[in-house]
Amino acid sequence: MDDKLFLMIPGPTPVPERVLLAMARSPIGHRSSEFAQIMEEVCERLKWLHQTRGDVLILACSGTGAIEAAIVNACSPGDRVLVGANGKFGERWVDMAKAFGLQVEVIAAPYGQPLPTEPFRAALEADTNKAIRAVIITHNETSTGVTNDLETIASHIRAHGEALAIVDAVTSLGATTVPVDAWGLDFVGSGSQKAYMIPPGLAFLAVSERGWQACERSTMPRYYFDLRQYRKALKKFNTPFTTPVNLVFGLQASLQMLKNEGLDNLFARHARLRDTTRAAVRAMGLELFNPDDQSASAAITAVIPPPGIEVARLRSALKKNFDIIVADGQGEMSGQIFRLGHLGFVSDRDVLTATAALEGALRSLGYDRFTPGSGVAAALSALSG
Amino acid sequence: MDDKLFLMIPGPTPVPERVLLAMARSPIGHRSSEFAQIMEEVCERLKWLHQTRGDVLILACSGTGAIEAAIVNACSPGDRVLVGANGKFGERWVDMAKAFGLQVEVIAAPYGQPLPTEPFRAALEADTNKAIRAVIITHNETSTGVTNDLETIASHIRAHGEALAIVDAVTSLGATTVPVDAWGLDFVGSGSQKAYMIPPGLAFLAVSERGWQACERSTMPRYYFDLRQYRKALKKFNTPFTTPVNLVFGLQASLQMLKNEGLDNLFARHARLRDTTRAAVRAMGLELFNPDDQSASAAITAVIPPPGIEVARLRSALKKNFDIIVADGQGEMSGQIFRLGHLGFVSDRDVLTATAALEGALRSLGYDRFTPGSGVAAALSALSG
What we know:
2 copies of one chain form a homodimer.
Chain A: E1 6-8, H1 17-23, H2 33-50, E2 55-59, H3 63-74, E3 80-85, H4 88-99, E4 103-108, H5 118-126, E5 132-138, E6 140-141, E7 146-147, H6 150-160, E8 164-168, E9 187-191, E10 203-207, H7 209-217, H8 227-234, H9 245-261, H10 263-283, E11 287-288, E12 300-304, H11 311-322, E13 324-328, E14 338-341, H12 348-364, H13 374-384
Parallel strand pairs in A: 1-13, 3-4, 3-5, 5-8, 8-9
Antiparallel strand pairs in A: 2-10, 6-7, 9-10, 11-12, 12-14, 13-14
Helix pairs in contact in A: 1-9, 2-9, 5-6, 10-12, 10-13, 11-12, 12-13
């Protein structure tokens, strides 16, 4: 059916009607006082969402651009960094850090498992010369549905005293708590097409006071992502380069919605969507790619299809029969897992629907090792629990 | 009156209703076959607009990001470049090239005047060692309303044989002819919020075959703007990082409109808007900041206010009385000139309206050195000529 597709991928996520309509307005000048007023409001709300008194910048780029901005402003060529890698995004930051001439030490975990925190503690504690400039952590690994223990790793970074905490919070910010100030995070990047409930095109970067000091010291060549220019512009509630004003109209609408919901409800909703999805998937006899509930992502659930059921055919059945889009695995995980996104503008009804549709799709492909309705029953039970 | 403002600034420019509505759709996955189909269509039309058989990339950034992408892929640290500077944007590329460690030789002209072409010829001819890696030219200097003689400078670059032509076509692409292949241009950057008639958030970069070879050779550290990744993704009508899909929906609608109008009509319309604006301004006894018709921009007209009339008060009168926004001068030109944008979704009616409103605003501020109606009469005469 035309126009009926529902996105349950890790981004873009569904966008509320009022956000779409807010975007469908004639642009205004990005240097106008009217726009500065909007920027003042959204910057205040971004701070609220980031649980910070520091600055949150709006960049015109994808989430990858926000992490690059953090790296090129925090570090200078040759700097030593620790990078956590347990999925495609962690690996991307390894590649990026190397591309910018950093000395990269990788702390890895297998796909589907959380990063161990102990090697971070050990490496930071051993660094008595304070040579480690930054630690780069993917909070929620979108490619596998694993949430790393950022709180613990951040505590080791704080104990080190000099290293900067650079966090990819692209799919965690707004879905799970990221208390930027309380955890002492220095650069926290995220993207609009995730829990923000707006289309892609904006990225956000929280910068701590220590982060700003690092920007002044960095000798990395940079211009478009030179955060010093953004900070200067922010004082007038502006951006150094033309900002996507219509997406900011959408952001204004979505932040009002998030504010109305409240942080506690927002995080509780995502936790409930996660628990419900996991309960349903288990009830159908499917295997969770990340079996550990403790590190299960609130934003996305990765599932191993039953033996004999191809991911491509399952995705196709969900799309064709029920107009639901779920994601394939990324890179070499393609065909190994499918990923259910449940972040942003997603309600209990949506995961219930996805569960019912998944039951139907699995049946249609001949998988019958579950009692019909058991997925939905488990989901309803989790929701009422 | 609420929601009645009409933008006559150099960007963002007015956006057609059908483009706004195209953007107000639920996003689709940027890795979906449905999106690849849209990308295939828009990439074909972008080639048409650029008059090229080469690649035109879509980047998620502002126009400044597109020029940075060109520079960091064309050049390596220490490379020698010539940069034309006769306004704020030319100066920005000088700063940017220096930020990336290039040896910059500036060829300048006073604000309001076109770049001389002879020094480019001389510098390139003298470079028998072929040490000049690239020449960076702002085609249309948005800050002053001057169009530089890109055709002639490009011919000197071609005669050199090695130097790459990097062009800021941010406010010229779509407003005036930029025949990328015929002029042998290697990197041509532009932005969505100009003649493309869509809101800010997308940038475009045409890359020649020679440009691609340079990307392979460049040793500049880069990641988000590493064009090799974009080229690879483009083969599947995709982008390496999440693209602003809703802006691409808008792009699809706007390119259909531009295609319907046709290149000749598009350029003739902008030339007519320029000539009409200039005739009207002159008839009111005002001074054009760029008095030379030959190099007058088809996108924007900069005007020196009459003695005793402050730019701020004139802009305020236009806004308050007639809901028209015109731009101030940039940087140190603030208060010295005002700038009328007439690019993108702008018709004869709009410049006629602006002329009448300008007459009224000038009168209301006490400027009476013109016969009432003479601006409009000159505009109508220019339009019918």
